[in-house]
Amino acid sequence: AWLSTASTASQIFIAPSVAWLATVFGLRRILGIPSLVFAVISLVLPFVRDYQTLLALTILHGLLIGTFVPATLMIIFRNLPMQWWLVAIGIYSLRVGFALNFGPALVGFYVDQIGWQWLYWQDAIIAVLMAILVYFGAARDPVNRTLLETADWGGMLLLGTGIAMVYAGLDQGNRLDWLNSGTVVAMLGCGAFLLVAFFINEAVVEEPWAHANVLFSRNIGFALVVILLYTLTSLSNSSLVPNFLSAVAQLRPEQTGRLLVIYGVLPFAVLFPLSIWLLRRYDVRIVLIIGLITFGIAALLGTQITNSWRLADFIPIVLLQSVGQAFTLFPIIIIALSNSDPTRATAFAAYIQIMRLGGAEIGIALMATWLRVREQTHSNLIGQHITHATDQVEQFLARMSGYFAGHGTATAPARSVGTLAGMVQREANVLAYIDGFWLTFGFAIMGLLVTALITKSPPGPFTPKAR
Asked: Residues with Cβ < 8 Å from 52, sequence gap 6 or more?
């Protein structure tokens, strides 16, 4: 569990600073040699058996991933002609839905067919390819020594460390029982303190790196809120459906993966050109509303699940979620970019990365806690009904004992009670997942309300009028 936390926390630590680092040192330095280092680490990781070494390599592995993903936007704006920006940003946003739906199938294939080590070794191959592309495609920019001399290192360290600690506290909260754990309390408390110190630092230093006034634009502030709400409502796709099929339907990742690939990835790929076409011709807010509405409808369908639901029953939900993925994140990024101040691009990029990564982890921690608490609540309520229905329960246990008697009379009563307990747990899980879908529906509605507060973007390279 700590390996997963360490990997993602290190990504969150570095991600807000990447835009500034790329501006100062150039994309070639940020992506070139680090890609080869990443390839070596990915190649070595499956062979490591010492925990401390594994933890250190995992942290470095996460730092490099946290560098690569945010640098993609910098590549788009620095290397591509303006007429390709919309398509490139669409591809950038496409990776989120693709990863969510394709990931389970790929993991299942690696684990069952060719070995779990390929979860890392695939990265080694891709990283070498990335290094080659960077070598031939990235400009040889000199180091910007003016920015380097006025660097706000304190601000970057405070923000990165603060949000990484808050994430670690959230990620470990369910496992360590939240505020009953000194470790969780320390991480959340120290993280919050460092974030307060960051905002104070940005207010007093001469050259603030990510001053909070970048958020004071109405549309940018609301766009960041919508990014958070999108992340929370898309949990119906990234968490609830595959977890239900695993916990209740007892399906393996490769079985779940087929559903997500066929009805999640393929429609998503077909809808991607349509989303670009719509954004070139219509107000971006209309496309965003379509995406949020489809997420809401998918969540409503999810509130109808029962213990008998299997892969085919989830097809309409996954299809609608695919539409939501195609028509939601892409427009949000366009709204944010259309309303941003180019002179504060690095500050804006920092907050975008915070919402992208931090929002996802907040959502995962929130949903995990919500499901656990609701399952316990429903288990208690169902148990009370069973206690009050004594006659029916005794009749059921007698029938089950008779069934199990053929496999051993002595163990039949215990096995019948175990069967009843398993049924209670199953139904409690089903009701908890229904509550989870209701929660994501609420986030979709909140996203629509916030979208209604966003005003029309000024003319620019991303607005239809400018074409």
From this structure: none
Spatial distance between the Cα atoms of 244 and 38, rounded to a whole number of angstroms? 34
Q: Which two structure tokens, joined as six digits, stand for 111?
A: 């684990």
- pLDDT by residue for the chain (467 residues), tens only, comes to 899 899 989 998 998 888 888 888 988 888 989 999 999 999 999 999 999 999 999 999 999 988 888 888 778 877 788 788 888 888 887 777 777 778 777 888 888 888 899 999 999 999 999 999 988 888 888 888 888 888 889 999 999 999 999 989 988 888 888 888 999 999 999 999 999 999 999 889 888 888 777 777 788 888 888 988 998 888 766 789 988 998 888 888 778 888 888 888 888 888 888 988 898 888 899 999 999 999 999 999 999 999 999 889 999 999 999 899 889 988 988 888 888 766 666 677 777 777 777 777 778 878 888 998 999 999 989 888 877 667 777 777 777 777 777 777 777 788 888 888 888 889 999 999 999 999 999 999 999 999 999 998 887 777 775 44
CA distance 357 to 66: 10
In contact, 34 and 87? CB cutoff 8 Å? no
pTM of the model: 0.84
* 267-to-94, 184, 190 alpha-carbon distances in Å: 12, 41, 44
Residue with tokens 């506290």: 169
Q: Which two tokens stand for residue 34?
A: 């680090």
